[in-house]
Specification:
It is built from ten helices and no strands.
């Protein structure tokens, strides 16, 4: 009989095994602690981050900035994606351009934003929002376009009005694809926000990582990066709960 292990338990066991192996490699001198510190050193640096480096304030700052950027991206991306679906000629005209922009490194525009907007939170929010809005637009359109013809025919057979057809059939069917777009938007927005904070030495976790790197506090830097990963994971968990609420299985 096969042993059944819950996914989160398997994930923790895998991380634990990786940490033990990494600790052994660093202790044996196979990996330089100046490149990758021992997990035990990273764990010991967490307390100092909270007490001396202002990790809580940095974490809250990045969380609020990311939330504002994603809120801006959703507020623009969902109506824009619906417009591209509602007017197919617009979708055919602009989807290739949006796909090309999605692949472009938007973070390189930060000098322009620094000149026009200034060195502040608004620049970080705008750059995160611009990066996050593109996958949302593309996936909103894709989700609505991909609704099966069978579902639409069922709505017509039941004499649904266009409004009922959209709200009761098309939108619920498109929810998983739309949530996927929002998840991608969060990934790209968070990456750009952390990157901009690092580059301009302003804001939250990105600025903290930059400061620790400049002081060669390698264990502290890796600990701060772990909190960035935890922040991203929290966003994904929250979106999973939202998807379950919008479209229960």
């Amino acid at each position: 009989m096969a042993l059944k292990i819950k996914p989160w338990v398997a994930g923790l066991l895998g991380l634990g095994a990786f940490a033990v192996a990494l600790e052994s490699f660093v202790a044996a001198g196979l990996i330089s602690p100046l490149v990758v510190p021992a997990p035990s050193d990273v764990a010991r640096s967490v307390g100092a981050l909270f007490l001396e480096e202002g990790l809580t304030e940095a974490l809250v700052t990045t969380l609020l900035v990311t939330g504002a950027a994603i809120g801006l991206a959703i507020a623009i991306g969902i109506p824009a994606g619906y417009a591209l679906y509602r007017y197919p000629s617009l979708g055919k005209a602009y989807e290739p351009w949006l796909a090309a922009l999605f692949a472009a490194p938007m973070v390189l525009l930060y000098p322009l934003f620094l000149v026009v907007v200034g060195r502040g939170y608004l620049t970080i929010i705008l750059m995160g929002g611009i990066t996050g809005v593109i996958p949302i637009i593309l996936n909103v359109r894709l989700g609505l376009v991909s609704v099966s013809r069978t579902l639409n025919n069922v709505g017509r057979a039941l004499n649904c009005t266009p409004s009922q057809q959209f709200w009761l059939i098309q939108l619920p069917a498109a929810v998983p694809t739309i949530i996927t777009g929002i998840r991608l938007g969060i990934i790209y927005a968070l990456v750009n926000i952390i990157g901009i904070e690092f580059l301009i030495a302003f804001g939250g976790l990105g600025r903290l990582v930059g400061n620790l790197y400049d002081r060669f506090d390698i264990p502290g830097m890796y600990a701060a990066i772990l909190f960035i990963v935890l922040l991203s994971t929290s966003f994904f968990w929250l979106l999973g709960r939202v998807q379950e609420w919008l479209r229960p299985v």
